[in-house]
Every structure is written in C-alpha cells, then in structure tokens.
Amino acid sequence: MYKSLIVVFLFIANIVLANAVKSVELEYYLPNAATYNPAIPAPESVLGYQVGDWHIRPEQIERYFMALADSSPRMRVEVIGYTHERRPLILAYVSSPENLANLETLRQQHLSGEKSAETPVVTWMGYSVHGNEPSGSNSSVLFAYHLAAANDEQTLAFLSDQIIIIDPMLNPDGLARFAHWANMYKAKNLNPDPKNIEHNENWPRGRTNHYWFDLNRDWLLLQHPESQARVAQFQKWRPHILTDFHEMGTNSTYFFQPGVPSRQNPLTPESNFKMTAKIAEFHAKALDEIGSLYYTKESFDDFYYGKGSTYPDIHGSVGILFEQASSRGHLQKSSYGELSFPFTIRNQLTASFSTIEAAQNLQADLKAMQRGFINESAQLARADRNRGVVVGSADQYRLAEMSRILTGHNIDHYPLAKDLAIKGQKFASDNSLIIPLRQKQYRLIKAMFETRTKFKDKVFYDVSTWNMAMSLGLDYAFVSRSDYEDNLKGSFEQKATSELNIDEATIALAFDWNNMQTSQLLSQLLTNKLRVQTVTKSTQMRTSSGLQQLSLGSIILPLENQHKDKNAIAALLKPMLEKARIKPVQIQSGLATNGIDLGSPSLPVVKPIKPLLVIGEGMSSYSAGEIWHLLDQRLSQTLTMMTKSQLAKLKSIDYSHIIIAGSNPNFDETTTAKLKSWLEQGGVMIAHGQGAKWITEQQWTSSEAKTFDKPVDTEVAYDKKSQTDAEHVVGGAIAKAKIDTTHPLGFGLDSEALNVFKRGNLAFTEPREAFVSIARFTDKPLASGYMSQANRDHIANQTSIFVQAVGNGRVIGFSDNPVFRGYFLGTAKVFVNALYFGKIIRSPARTEPKEDEKKDVKKK
To answer: Residue 689 has what pLDDT?
Structure first.
C-alpha cells in the first residue's frame, strides 16, 4: 500500500512537472522546421530554450543574429548605432547570396530608379519599438531563422526578388527592462491571473527608452540616438514597405492597417491607402489559416508623421502598423481565453510572412507607386505658389537644432545668403536658414511647417500638429515665387574656433543669454563654483570691441575676486567655449555708459542650483523623462530624482528646486506642510499641467484652474459619440500665448509671441496681484492643430504661466508641458529660465480675496 502511494505520487509529480515546464515545439511556429538546413543554428541551440519559454534579452537577440550571419550566406548584420545605455542597434540584410554580394549597387539603382523593374523590392521589418511589447522582437528571431535556413521554392524566390531588412529591436533598453521583469517573476507553474505581479510592471515600465521617451513618436523629431540611427538608414534605403510590430491591451485580438480612412494625413496620397488595403488581404488570409481573429478599420490612425508606421507614408513607402493583444508576461487571462506568449509570437510571425508574400506578389505595383509618388511630389512642388521656407532666430542653438533635424531627414537647406523681409518679417542672413521646396522631400517639408486647423475627422490617436518652427521657437515664413531667388542660398562654412585671449584690461566676461547653449555654460560655471551674475535691466558697457548693449539675461562672469585667477578661468573656459561656439564679450569697465553698473543690485548673483525631480508611481514617466533629458543632455545639470515616499521621509529638504512634472503628486498633509515650510525658506517649486493645478489647490497662488463647462448635446445619435467626445479633447495642438520678455522667465526669447504645446484644456484664471501672470493665451489662441471652438473660448486670454511668492520662495506653474517630447525648445527656454533665475524673481505673495469676491466664489 505504502509503495503504491509512492508510485502514484511520483506519477502525479511527473505530470505536474511536465505541465510546468512544457514548451511549444519549433513546429508550432514553423510547421516545416524539420526540413531546414541543419548547418544553420536554430534559435534553441543558441538561446538554450525555445522561443516563447522565456523573454529573449537584447544581447541574446544580437548574439543569435550574429550566429546566423556567421553561418548563412543569406544574411549580413550591421551595427548602425548605440542606445543611450550603449546597447548596439543592429540591422540584418537578408537576401540571396548574389544580391548581398551586390548590395550597394542594388541600393543605388533602387534610389535612382535605374533598372527599377529589375532591382529587388526592399522590405523593412521593424519590431517592438515599445520594449514591453516583446512579441515582435521575439518573432524576429524565428523569422530570421526561417529566411536563413529554409530551402523551399517560395523562400528562395523571396530571397531572390527582395532585400529584406530586419530591425529586430527598435528599443533595446526598454526591451531589456521588460524582459528582466517578466523573466524575474516567471513561475514554473504559469499564473494567468492579470493581477499577478508578472503582468504589472513597476514604474517607469519597459515601454520607453532610457530617458522614458516613447520612441514611436520620435521618427520625425530625432531627439534620440535610436531614432537618429534608424532614420539615417531609412533615408539610405527608402524601402517599399516598412512594418511596425506592436502590442495592445490583453482583451483584444489582432489589428493591422489600413485603419480608419478618414484619419489618414491628407498629405499622404490615396494610392498609399489603397496599397495598404491590398496588402491587408494577404495578412487576412494568413491569419485565417491559423484561426486568429483580427480587425483592420478601427482605432488607429495614420496622421502623425512621427510614428514608425506613418513616417514611411510621406516618402512613397507603405508603413504598416500591427497590434497584437499582449500577454504582458508568459500567460494571462483575457476576454478570448488564456493568452500565451507563444501565441502572440506566432501571430506576429505569421504577419511577417504575409508581408513578404505581399511584397513578392505586389512588387511591380509597389515600385510603380513609389515612382509615382516621386513624380507627383515634383509636380506639386513646381505648382506650389511658394518656393521655399525661411526660418530664423537670434538663438544659434535652436537654429542649429533645426538644421540638425533637417539634415537627419535628408532635407536640403542653406544659410540665408542675404537679409530678407517677407510681409513685415525680417530675417537676417547671419541667423536664418532657407529651405527650398523644389526637392525630393517636398511633401515632408510641407508636413513639418503646415498649420492645419480644419480636419475631416476630429479623432486623433496622437497629436494633430507638430510645426517644427513653432515648436523650436523660431520665426518662419514661406517664400513666394516672386521673393525667391537662387542667390538666397548660402553655404555652410566651418567656422574657425576663436582663441580666448583675455585682454589685460578686461574685468569681466559677458555671454549672451539669447543663445540657449549659454545655459549649459552657466551650469558648468556654477558647478565650478564661480560667481556669476545676470543682467535684469538694460545696460550698455565699454568692451574690448567698443560700446555694447547687453541683452536681458546675459551672464556676467567677473574675473576678479574668484577662487580662480584669470589664467585658470581662461583654461577652464576654453574647452567649454569651443564646444558651445560662444564668443564672450570682454567688459573693460564696471561703469555702464548707459543703464546699470556692474555692481548694481539689478545684476544679481545667480546661485548654484540643486534640483529634485519627483518621480515614481502616480507621476507621468513621459513628463519626468523629458525634464531629465533636458537637464542631463542639454544643460549638463546634475539632477536628483526621488519618489514621493522618499521625499516624505526626508527630515529636511536641502534642494534648491522641486520639479513636479505633469501629474498631481497627491502629497499627504504632512509632506505638503513640509514643502510649504521649505518654500517659505526660499525654495523654488516648478510644476506643469496637473502638478501646477495642485499648486493652485494649496492656495499658494491667487490664480486658480479655470473650470471647463463642457457643452452637452443630450440628443446626439450614438454613432456620433466618438466625434462628439473628440470636440472636448485637446489631444495635441499648438496655442498662441504672449509672454513678458522683460520678466526673467522671458529672458532670451526672440519675441513676446510664445507657442505653447496644448494638451488638455487646463488654463489658469487671472491672479489678483500684478507681476504674477507672466504669459497669457491670446484672444484667438489656436495656432495649429485641432481645438474645438469651446476649448478655444475656454483658454482665450487666460494665464498659461504664473509665478508667485510663498514667503522667501517661489512657485512657478505652467499650464502645459514646456519640454514636450524634448523638442519644444521655445517653451523649454522658459523652463530653463525658471531653473536658473527662479530665485531672483521679485514676485508678490498671494493676497486674500475681498468680501465681494468671496461671495462670487460661493455663488459659483
């Protein structure tokens, strides 16, 4: 009896163990796997486990692709760049050995159109730009193996007629973060409970890159090395098809485009939408064969050109979005039953095969469509009443950023050769660029500078505008045919770095604050414990170059009474100035020839800063990451990041600034009281969005969040719900504001016109005190994008940026994100001013409302 029980127990244990470690076979993904070339390593032989058993880490994906390239003449792997965390970004070129041997010639023939009927179709397969959407990257391993090892006629035909570019992991840093999480919590007995920790990552989660940016919004903006490297290769190849494999909510099925017809960008030709629909038939057939559910014409759009599936559309390529319901781990319950990680991988692999099958069958159509796009773009450029775009700014840093982005997109542009005036706007030759419209990137240029405000569809998956000049805070104008001349195009010349030779008579150096690069210089000067002052009132000084007017915000570095002598300061400055290309003004007398003197209280000392950014659960990782990126990458400013609970545990707050990015921090009463005491002792709090609203709720300012009275139509038909709801959503528009440029928050801006990226309808009421509302939305605030009339009326003439004293400290609030996606440098300049000049701002404290005002509030 006893022995029988032992036998039964062992039998049951073996069954349980078998179920616990059971994995799918390779044939689950590749039914003909047994016939593959045995000389080519299968994934399991390199990984040590079958695909789908564990989440593959980036270094394993890289190692496997390198193993394939080493063993197969069909594959070549190239490292195209590195992430912020120094992980390699790889591309695999897969084709016949003959094509690979002739790859560069075929590329050039493809781009030139020479022998286009004979050159292979170029199919770019991109996977998992969001790190916690891993089924794409995991499927890329199987896809590459099949192409390298299969010897069936169909695969060989694909390799002969196509150059297949595999981008197996668009976001290695995020993928690493998520793979670690999912693998760390994988149990021997898989747990499908959605509440299980395996399916619920900690903040900031694996979706984003190192700085918590969504890389699927960065194709146009090019703020990160991943996007910069990828777009450079896209421009090098201009593929016929580019795929973008994603995941969506667990309680979904599978999505692929064409998407919603009314939500395509009008600059994308109709032929693109039709071609996408043709390709969709191949996906449908393939998914039908394995019994997977899907949908195609809902939810997602193709409007914003900064996404991976839409950026190709403005280049004559076909971008295709795929969205797979996510297991967010290894196994999870869903509305359609238990969803396993291998199942999600198989769907993505199936769509990968159907893509190259579509490319094979439609190659003549794809080539004709791309040629037609190029020819039509040239015709549109010739018919355009404008011949170019001119952009300008006194800020050489922001102008250089525009040039860098244009270069990244292969857009021809030139320094303006001579001064130009267009409808009252003046563009100086020494700080302007001109972009001719008659070039291959005509459509993309139009997309980058348009100010569309009317749309067929009111629903947007992402932003409705992204005007590059407005976002960078640059002046711009279209140049008409009558104003345009070829001799407006200057040439980029390598400027020689001038030596810093400090004249013996020089007592101080001045650096123009109009150049945003000066803010990084200021950070370094303060880090080196040098005493620095700033100009807050008009002054003219005697300099080594004669009399010069110093702009507001200019940084003054006295050369005497520092802890370093002149020579040491010069040695310290030399590499800084070479990098920044900033030439200082050498002041030779402390006595102003006009305005304030060097020792004036209106030239206050700028104190070193020690900022703290609140992060963690409950806070927006996007907004926090944008602040971190600005301070770390653009300012070289050390930043402490701390969760709300860590902040609450501090016995004392020894930080100069506390930054609350985008979210309501919901501090408890004790922490809030501690923060108020810190403010009263001289701290500076900077917040935007719901964080700024939280400041007003503490009654630290007399400005309040303005209530939006949403119009309601009780009789509207149900099928109009999405359009009706969209009327009250501001998903991403640009609003016009007016800022006081004599105020420290406005120092260094080109003009009082300030473009604000508007998301949501938050605005603040007019404060009771003077000098608190620093920037207000205009009476007609919409500059570009979609914003209903009700929302326009709601924010018109309301406060966008306020600053108010709390004891010896200051609270500075922005209604909207001033550093949106890292490229909104116009308002980022204001944020930088808040950081470095916050303590020198003279602002009144909140006053109590009068009795009649209190009665009005009660009535409301």
So the answer is: 97
